[in-house]
Task: structure prediction
Amino acid sequence: MTERPLKIGITCYPSVGGSGILASALGVELARRGHEVHFISYERPFRIPADVAGLFFHPVVVNDYALFKYPDYTLPLSVKMAEVCALRGLDVLHVHYAVPHATAALLARAMLPPAQRPRIVTTLHGTDTTLLGRDAGYRPAIRHALEASDAITVVSAWLHDETRRVLAVERPIDVIHNFFVPRPPSRSRDAVRDELGLRDEAMIVHLSNLRPLKRVEHLLEAMARMRSRQQCKLVVLAGGDFEPFRPLVRQLGLESRVLVRENVFGIEDYLQAADLGFFASEAESFCLGILEAMCFGCPSVATQVGGIPEVIEEGKSGLLVPVGDIDALAAGADRLVEDPGLRLALGGAGRRRAEELFSAAAIVPRYVDLYRRVCARPPACD
Ligand code: GMT
Result:
């Protein structure tokens, strides 16, 4: 017997960032598999194509009342969630981040009559545990949101252990790794390399929102220490402002070696042209950027921190170095720039690993299975 399609509400931060990318890809893949998907957020997530059948977007309007010193998003979000649940009969609200999305979902559930109450699945991406979970002003609210969810998922085994340790959550937590579905590039590899002015140089790529924990300054300092720096260029696909790093680029004499492209929609164009990825994060629950590069056979040099060792197997699908060790970053990048054979071997292994463990085919059924399991049991109490 075929199981009926599910109706799923998804709430995420819609702007540039791994969690929004993951939530958008999940929504698109669910809709392609015949489920009905409703995104509920203040903005349409930027990675969602306009024309996916079965996928809908419900904007949350936030009014800035003079009465409030700080505009409130949680309450209008909860009202919109309840409205969509009542109108469309959602089975599940899948929220990415406990704060404030799971909190709003709990409120929406409490506002609805029992027959219209959805199950709540909360996915943690990091900050709820690593930053807010340590803040006494947030911790009890996060713990409550997690204990009252019908299921909790995290994006790495590392985040699973950290969430148990920091938040002392007792409910089961499922580890469901990130996945990535590359879109076909819109330009040829040669066209992209021409645009970047690359001749025989190796292209090193870094993609992130450039938050301080990404330690972009370590990447730049490592670039300056590489013996092969004249044989390569660093291309930064920036989901944040690169201007604060310009003085360091000048100070290190890297003006001709570092290129920046901001808020790029077609990252695939650049990833197909890249030879190695470069990541110096001091914290990372998964690091979607590494996976995005891996999908194009592009191996990375990255820091051995958080969930990154679950993405890259050291020496097999990339190179791992200690956090803050700039010489090791430079040496790792030198090895890959100078040895195309090693790049090919690590890149090929990484691409196979991504396909096997972190593809839509491997991951989406795990979410669907989880949704069906929570729908089959009584709701968690408020
Ligand atoms: O890393 C960021 O600054 C963005 C953040 C987000 O909200 O997108 O990323 C987190 O979620 C991603 C998707 O699950 C993970 O790949 C990132 O590792 C995680 N960031 C951190 O843990 C710092």
Q: What stands out?
A: Residues 182 and 268 are 7 Å apart (CA to CA). The first helix runs from residue 18 to 32. Residues 17-19, 22, 125-126, 155, 178, 209, 211, 213, 283-288 surround GMT (CB under 6 Å).
